[in-house]
Amino acid sequence: MASVIVALGITFLMGVVYKIITEREEAQSELKVLAQITAINSQPALLFKDKLAAEEILAALSPNSDIVSAEITTASGEVLARKKMDQGISAEGGQLTTYVSQLLRRLLAEGGCEMVEHTVTLNGEVLGKVAIESVMLAVWLEIIAAIIASIVATGLAVILSLLLIRNMLDDILKPIAHLSESASKLAKSKQYSQRVPRLADDELGELTDQFNQMLNEVERRDKDLLAQNSALENEVKNRTQVITQSMEEMRSLMDSMAEGAYGVDADGNCKFVNAAFLRILGYTSAEEILGKNVHALIHHSHAQDKRYPMADCKIMTTCMQNKPLHATDEVFWRKDNTPVPVEYWSQPMLVDGVVKGVTTTFVDISERKQSEAELKVAATAFEAQESMMVMDAGRIILRVNKAFTEITGYAADEVIGKSGSLFRSGREDENYYQQMWSAIDQQGFWQGEVWNRRKNGTIYPGKISISAVKNQQGDITHYVSTLTDITKTKAAEQEIRNLAFFDSLTGLPNRRLLLDRLSQALTFSARSGREGALLFIDLDHFKTLNDTMGHAVGDMLLQQIAARLSASVREGDTVARLGGDEFVVMLEDLSEHAVEAAAQTEAIGEKILQALAQPYQLEAHEHHSTASIGATLFNDHEADIDELLKQADIAMYQAKKAGRNTLRFFDPEMQASINTRAALEAELRKALERQQFKLHYQLQVDAAGQPVGAEALIRWQHPSQGLVSPYHFIPLAEETGLIIPIGEWVLNTACQQLHAWQQRTGTQHLTLSINVSAKQFRQPDFVQVIQQAVSQHQINPAYLKLELTESMLLEHMAQTI
Questions:
Q1: What's the pLDDT tens digit per position in 192-239?
Q2: For labelling, which of 82, 116, 561, 795 has a CA lying 20 to 30 Å from the CA of 448?
Q3: CB within 8 Å of 410: residues ≥ 6 apart
Q4: Which residues lie closer than 8 Å to 231 by C-beta, 6 or more apart?
Q5: Considering only CA atoms, which of 629, 534, 537 is closest in space to residue 588?
């Protein structure tokens, strides 16, 4: 329909344009001819300037209804005659035509007129000019008539098309509307047993059949869903009863707990509390807590009412990351806003692997805290046999013990209330003590030697350890000082030096001095709680240097090693030479925490490894050397010194096994591993004697899945441990050399099996692969052993495969070839 209307419009517009162009051209042509005739007639009038004659010539143009005006001008431009035509509208066209003509005149104005001029000449001389103005009214009337006719024709075409389309749509939409109405009723009533009648045999009829078929499937699925829903409702009802019963039992269990317990959702809002929670924190009912933010109620501040924002809450942040939390010293707040010290445990609540909240249990540790506070000062000050002194945060003496009086000569009442600086001898300057107290305030501990003055004025050397006692907020409340009169120790040290307690080659302490210092370090470590460490250092391939360049060069290397070791450790640490190329470094005053102490030890060990790995200048030769270091920590004064050295030695051998030029820590599992290894070696020898090994066969197939052979895999059938994997005993067999007789047993057992296969038609074609160890391969009689097994068991050697590792082939290339 739109296409028809557009086509009619385009045709009409093209006709109008054509009509305007042709009519204008025709009118102009006629006017030019009329102007030419009028010019010829005007020659006498212009020649004699006869105005009357000129006006008569113009009057002759009046019968032409299209001419609006005309004029004759002389060559100088003077108007000789002008005539404006009185063109009245003819009454023959009727009133409507008259009205339309007048309307067109007003609308077109000058735009509907054509002006034609013609020059009047006589014998080549210009006499003047004739101008005629004509109106195009008749042309525009014809155009309007054409437009009206086109509009009428288009309207009739549109009306006829609409009537035709309506009849066609009635035939198409009536069945679709019926189908839609039926579907809507079915959807609202959900009575899927109804069916839509077929109204036509065309595509709509096919659609109706498909719709009814869909209803059949929907009806069937609806019945299935109703049945499943009924079953689910019964299941939910049963599970609800079980859950309700379980929740009641859980509630009873929680209320019987001595520990307080509560749970929060992911936003920190309380989901449940138990009776102990209410009792410990002073609440009367759970309704006071449920649904509220637990952090804001009971966990909003640290001790001393220091605010604890929820964003920093360890219970929420740590547990929402799915990590359990145990805090041994925290503060919860009671309903009356008084603090209660607690120890608590938090666990994330998981639903389908997603954290939905946190459960927390806690206990009131008020009594424990009070006891700890009372015992901390008492135990620190008086449980030792050494001289003890307790000062407050201002370093004013609060208490001293009997050993203090024996060493200093001051009675308790003579020093209590006085400054701890009372005993200074004056040998150390003020800067020394400032550094000492700065270290105590920053690190919490200081140990060193100080010259003190007794009451009688004598000066003596003392070894002092000062520990800072801090409260929960980390503020220092007391200082505890221990004093040891080391006058005898100093004398003994001098005696030790006189007895040559130092290595003559390197100038380092020898084994005897090391043991003495280690004994003191163990005592100090037990008293202070701080860890110490032993580093057992053995040079890599030192024997090669001695054998190739002589012992004198080796001694030069040892001296340079000693210097580098001394430069690599801290002041106060001990570097000793045990003998040969073995050195020991003893570290003291490490962290109180084993993990941190291990990290400090590792850092020093790495520094030593880097220092020892630098090139050495041995006379005219540049030499490179590395070391293997074994480390062990200690903090127990009852620890056996020889056992510590043995542990460090074991760790050193672990470093060598790891590839040398590295550091390894001793672990109790190392010793257990060594014991287990020895027992396993003995068991392995018995297994070989008692024929406890067996071969299992791993089938090998081709691309079509047909068997082509097998690989022999050794297993140990232990009488008590069952089947033992080769992963556990083959490496030990390699190290101990037992792999050679085990390999020969595997070879003979495999050949025996291959002989059995070659006697049967179905297995004659199968190959058998066995693994050959590096040690077995490098035996001088390896070839003879293989030949003997092949000959003894009478097998075709083409079906026996020996599997060798690539790394084994690359070593000792010539011998391997």
A1: 666 667 666 777 677 777 777 887 877 788 788 888 888 888 888 888
A2: 561
A3: 400, 404, 422, 455
A4: none
A5: 534
Cα 59 to the center of its chain, rounded Å? 106
Q: What are phi and psi of 183, to 5 degrees?
A: -65, -40
Mean residue pLDDT of the chain comes to 83
Residue 676 neighbours by CB distance under 10 Å: 13
For the ranges 86-100, 436-450, 726-740, the lowest mean pLDDT is seen at 86-100
CB crowding 546-576: b at 16 or more within 10 Å, else e: beebeeebbebbbebbbebbeebbeeebbbb
| Distant-in-sequence, close-in-space partners of 250: CB < 8 Å, separation ≥ 6 | none
pLDDT above 60: residue 331:
yes
Torsion angle of alpha carbons 31, 33, 39, 42, nearest 10°? -90
Assigned token pair, 714:
């050794």
Q: From edge to edge, which strands make up the β-sheet containing 339-351?
A: 270-273, 260-265, 354-364, 339-351, 325-333
Distances (CA, A) of 786 to 56, 794, 798, 803: 150, 12, 13, 13
Q: Determine the Cα angle at 447 with ends 445 and 453, to 5°.
A: 120
Contacts of 662 (CB under 8 A, 6+ apart): 609, 628, 629, 655
pTM above 0.70, yes or no: no
And the tokens for 508? 């380092």
pLDDT of amino acid 262: 92
Cβ partners under 8 Å of residue 695, min gap 6: 712, 713, 714, 715, 746, 749, 750, 753
Alpha carbon distance 455, 406 (integer Å) = 11
With contact defined as beta carbons under 8 Å apart, do 260 and 363 qualify? yes
- Give yes or no for a contact between 85 and 132, defined as CB atoms under 8 angstroms apart: no
* Rounded Cα gap, residues 319 and 264, in angstroms: 11
Of the candidates 54, 73, 51, the one whose C-alpha atom is nearest the C-alpha of residue 126 is 73
Phi and psi at residue 629, in whole multiples of 5°? -120, 130
Asked if pLDDT for residue 4 goes beyond 80, the answer is no
The position carrying tokens 């006499």 is: 127
**Residue 153 is which amino acid?**
A
Taking CA 475 as the corner, what is the angle to CA 472 and CA 476, rounded to the nearest 5 degrees? 115
Task: Evaluate if residue 88 carries a pLDDT over 50.
Answer: no
pLDDT digits (tens, 9 = 90+) for 563-574: 999 999 998 899
